[in-house]
């Protein structure tokens, strides 16, 4: 189940559809690259109630193996009514469905961190991480992505970040066993917590897996026009990196492997 927390730029929507459709197409591509190939089925719900969306009920997730929360122009640390309602849904699902996988991208990464007691806010430098960026991998990240390289590249589009990572203690005993480790799989100079991982349970990424060149440029344009990005030179430099190849499919393949099997080692 893809929980859509934003609507793409109209030009992106006309070509690639909603964020849920974009996620479906991206993970389907990763599934075809799996050995053996994996089929991916998705459904989508737009959850921003103040824009006509709705918060689904817990029982709507009965036939799903996981959920993914998309990126958004909204702040994951805000207290909009729909954000608070979504957090309540996620908490209920986490407790009632120990078998379900929780995936989060950008806003979704931050919201799931908040759910587990982490803190989210603007970067201490107040600047943005934009465009094609290098992410240094921890040993956990190298194992997840099956690489001996010490880094990957993904597209970024954020100012907020996880400023204090969640722990089993911050999540509380209702959510996590006290011995549960929440691992960080990557970091950058701008963002020390690029993604979180709990085997068979949680995978998040601050960066975007499915962005292409046009999406990067359009999403930057939206944030410049909205007044979020004020450093126009930084925005222009980031847009110039939009054509560079990135590792979004490899990351999606790792996510799919976690549904099929997850090596504790």
Describe the structure.
It contains nine helices and eleven strands. It has helices spanning 10-16, 19-32, 81-96, 107-115, 139-144, 168-171, 213-225, 232-239, 248-260, and strands at 2-4, 44-46, 66-69, 101-105, 119-122, 129-137, 151-158, 160-164, 183-187, 195-198, 202-205. β3, α3 and β4 (101-105) form a beta-alpha-beta unit.
Order of helices and strands: EHHEEHEHEEHEEHEEEHHH
By secondary-structure content and strand pairing, the structural class works out as alpha/beta
Number of strands: 11
Fraction of residues in helix: 25-40%
The shape, in one word, is: globular
Key structural traits:
alpha/beta; 9-stranded mixed beta sheet; two-stranded antiparallel sheet; 11 strands; 34% helix; globular
Write the layout of secondary structure elements.
Elements: E1 2-4, H1 10-16, H2 19-32, E2 44-46, E3 66-69, H3 81-96, E4 101-105, H4 107-115, E5 119-122, E6 129-137, H5 139-144, E7 151-158, E8 160-164, H6 168-171, E9 183-187, E10 195-198, E11 202-205, H7 213-225, H8 232-239, H9 248-260
Parallel strand pairs: 1-2, 1-3, 3-4, 4-11
Antiparallel strand pairs: 5-8, 6-7, 6-9, 9-10, 10-11
């Amino acid at each position: 189940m893809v929980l859509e927390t934003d609507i793409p730029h109209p030009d992106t929507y006309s070509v690639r559809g909603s964020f849920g459709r974009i996620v479906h197409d991206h993970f389907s591509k990763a599934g075809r690259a799996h050995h053996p190939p994996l089929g991916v089925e998705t459904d989508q719900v737009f959850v921003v109630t103040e824009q006509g969306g709705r918060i689904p009920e817990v029982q709507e997730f009965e036939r799903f193996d996981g959920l993914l929360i998309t990126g958004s122009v909204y702040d994951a640390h805000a207290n909009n009514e729909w954000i608070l309602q979504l957090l309540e849904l996620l908490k209920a699902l986490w407790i009632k469905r120990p078998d379900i996988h929780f995936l989060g991208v950008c806003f979704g990464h931050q919201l799931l961190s908040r759910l587990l007691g982490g803190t989210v806010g603007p970067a201490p430098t107040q600047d943005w991480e934009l465009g094609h960026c290098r992410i240094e991998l921890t040993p956990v990240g190298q194992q997840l992505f099956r690489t001996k390289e010490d880094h990957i590249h993904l597209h970024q589009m954020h100012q907020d970040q996880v400023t204090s990572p969640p722990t089993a203690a911050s999540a509380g005993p209702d959510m996590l066993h006290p011995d549960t480790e929440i691992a960080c799989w990557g970091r950058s100079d701008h963002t020390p917590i690029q993604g979180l991982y709990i085997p068979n349970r949680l995978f998040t990424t601050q960066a975007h897996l499915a962005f292409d060149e046009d999406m990067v440029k359009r999403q930057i344009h939206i944030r410049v026009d909205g007044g979020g990005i004020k450093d126009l030179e930084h925005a222009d430099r980031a847009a110039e990196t939009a054509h560079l190849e990135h590792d979004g499919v490899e990351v999606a393949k790792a996510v799919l492997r976690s549904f099929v099997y997850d090596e504790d080692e």
